[in-house]
Structure formats: structure tokens, C-alpha cells
Amino acid sequence: MKRIVLLLFSVVVGCGESIPETAKVTGKVTLDGKPVEGAVVTFQPDGEGKPATGKTDANGQYTLMTAFQTKTVEGVVPGTYKISVSKYSVPDGGMSPYGQQSDPPAVDPNKKLTEEEEMALLQQGYTAADAQPQNRNETLKNELPAKYANPATSGLSYTVVPGENSLDLDLTSR
Fold this sequence. Notes:
The chain is an alpha+beta fold. It has helices at residues 2-13, 115-123, and strands at 24-31, 34-35, 40-45, 52-55, 61-63, 65-67, 72-74, 79-86, 88-89, 141-142, 157-160, 164-166, 169-171.
């Protein structure tokens, strides 16, 4: 009986995803020499592997993270990657797929607003699009040149080696 319990335990424990060794990847994103805040850097594996992403801070600095089934870890599985860089905003002041830019008003969609309430919301920059999140993708705008948003057209690639890696991405608007 003891052997059966140990065998079952080892089978259950062995079912989780094993997390391979990762290498730290950091860098800075600039556009025409100026740091880009809020850009999302994505490493797509050129072959087998896991994608990794990082978001730039106010100085354009990023650190890549890789999401596995059981947890997200800092670093990237060594290998060759194609890179994309994008920075999306919503012109109407709504939500971006990469985080909240403004807090939409907490208004019950079934409640009839007074004229004063409607005017107050309009003056704060809220539009009808705020009430229709399914239409949000129509208003997304990439603030970086379009070629960088696709790893196939960005012209950016990198081979991650074990240890620490540093890759500055100097983008141009031309």
C-alpha cells in the first residue's frame, strides 16, 4: 500500500510543467534617440520556445518576463527570437489592452442620466465608446511606426544566451 501511495504521489507531482532555466534580458527602447515609456517589447521564439514580454518604464527600460502554466518568471529561455515593439493608446481616453489609462465612470448603463451628468462626463472626456468596450479595438492607435509591431516586419532579432543579456532597441520613425 505504501508503494502505491508513493507511486501515485510521484505521478501527480510530475504532471506540472517543468520550468527551464531562463536568462535575464534587459534593455532600453528609444525612438529617434528619445526613451519610449509604456512600450511593450515581445520576444517571439524563432522555432521552439516560449514568448517573453516586458513593458518600458519612464526611462524606456524593460525587463523581459516569461509566462509558464504555473507561474511567470523573470527571464527568457535561451534561443533565437524575433522582436516586436508596440505602444498602444486609445484616442478617446478609454482603456488600452496594456493597462488602464483613465478610469471610466461607474455609471449604470440602465440609469437615465440627467443633462448635467451627461455634460459633466463629456467635459471629463468620456465618450459613447466608454460604454461599449467591444468597440474599443477600433480606436487603438500604435504610437510607434507600424513595422515594429510585427516581428516579421520589425527587422529586430536577438539570440538570448545563458546569463545576463542586454539589448537596447533604437527605433527610428523613418
